Here is the input.
Amino acid sequence: MPFLYAILLMFVTHGLQPNAVMPSDIETYLQKGLNLEQQGEPEQALILWQLAIDELTTPSVAIATEYLRIATQYGLRDYYPTAHETYQWGMSGYNPEAMLINRKPLEEEISRMEPLLEQSVHRHWTQLLEANSPMLLEEMLKYWERLNIRPSTPFNERLIEHWERIAYAREHYSMRSDPPYDTDARGLYYVKYGLADYKETGRVDVTQDKMRWILDQFLPKDPDSNPDYTPTSYELMLVSNAISNLFLNPEYELWIYDSPAEEMSHNLVLIFGHRSGGRFGKLDVLEDFMPGSAFDMSALLREGIQPDRPIIQPGLVLQLIYYEHFYAKDPYFAELHASLTSEVYRGGLNNIPDPLLAGTLRSRNINQTNRLIDQSPDEFSTEEKKIAEIPIQVYQYRLLDSSNRPVLATFVESYPHNAFITDFVQNEEALTTEFLNEAESFDNLFDWYQLIHGLQLRTGQWDLLGQARQFPELLVDPDAEIPSRTSMLIHWNERSDTQVFYAELVNIHPDSEPQMESLFSESLRGLGKVEIEQPQPLALREGELGVRDIILGYNKLDEVPDDLVLFHFTPANTHKIPAGENLVVHFEVYQLQTDPDGFSSFDLDYEIRPRSRLFDWARSQADQFTISLTFENEGDRFVESLEIETIQLEPGNYELTFTIREPASNQTHEQQIEFEVVD
Here is the structure.
């Protein structure tokens, strides 16, 4: 331990007695740390609490969450990894006694996490807390593990991001002090979603000129009246008076998040302001700015309008003004504005709409908005937007290994070229200045980069069952036929529910810098992640001829060590075969019937036909691509990568019919597979 650090520990722990630690000592450590914060020494508070971890026999949720609060509130980024570790320690009291000691801070932590949770999860956690069940702690930790943006490291950036958002919200959204973050409504949504992609504040101008223009659409002069009497002006006065008496024209704040979830048909649009006659908060629709009385006739009756006199409602005037103001800000508003004007002007000009129309439109807008909000996620990270995305594709084929256990032949393909180019442009000078010429610079450039493919197997409760990492060749040509690829055999695991695949691009050059500052390590320059359900295994009934997932490829290789690749050909997982290449079909046959000498046999027919120009093909070339073969094999299992001569096939779409017949059992298996020959 450095001398200065030791002196500092002696200072902050003066007066404490770490021996025979009891629950009361948790409060002692906690309060001393808070006192240090009040004295302007937040970093010393963290050092004190770090010492408490070694001294306390009971983990403390209160110390763990206060550690996170202080580290993020004061921007003590060097302590973020320790903050994550302290949180894990604080949530590790898996016994009833620790649960009782931590009951109050656990209740507060559940409250802080509630806005991010599905209602069923929050209800379940509350029940676990009431039952004093230590399972609560494990489930809360597993929740954050699920959200971990970068699976390859134990440090959880999403947890730190959550507490950074809380700190920011408390500082910037203080119009109210509502739970769970002691902020106004904006703070709650900022903690859920982070900084909006678009943000705007303003007011909607409800002016006499705008109201006059709207009323002029419906109220022409009465030719039978006094020529000095203008109904438009009179109606304007009445409606204007009603609006002035009911409406205060408040300020709004608009947040727009760009498509935060695939299932959302629109961007996520949030509106904040003072609800008519109420407190500041999130508004469901623009009509929330307007008083409810603007949507009935009572206000106009008080202004002197006769019940039998046609008049446009104040609410409809406000709707037309508000939706016209917002329609260009997002497609969501544009659609509502188009729907509104279509209904209002359905009867044409000079026709006053139905008096009930304004209320009907308000109800419809509320229902439509609620449907969109229901599609929005409970939370999402904006931190991962700071790292260039690496798209990932995963292809899996169900096979059996030599012991007839189900396995998944898995290919992970990633496309890191955009992440690489972005980082290279950012750091070109640092990456190339030490080389004498451009050719040498390019040859050595890739020494600084490394591409990583990884896999994690998870249970439904997110327990980690196993993981693996591979280091594929970094391919950065966007027009290359083959992406960066790794292959692996994954044994099917009955406990596994989810497979997490990820790709990372790192730059280890000491003078390079990431494009944006983030919570990730500085060497990370690209990131991709995909979670998939573990496919069902290949399962065969006794005596059943087993042929399942067929793998297509090309460019068969004859002399490749078995430990380098799964298959001795280039897989075509997208079923695209380069023109001029022979097609390779990998198939495996299981549970063949054997004769007394242990040998088995089967017949194979394959046929390739184009998916168009069928009759021309049938007359000219069909016989060249219809083959029958007989295979004899020792044992009941057969594995083959069959090369089919297709060099002369023209670019286009084709269908391969693959039929296996076993005379001994009179069983047949047939598959049709589509593929494309591409230039």
Observations:
- The chain has four domains: 3-172, 195-375, 387-537, 540-679.
- Residues 540-679 form a domain with the Immunoglobulin-like fold (CATH 2.60.40.10).
- The chain is about 35% helix and 25% strand.
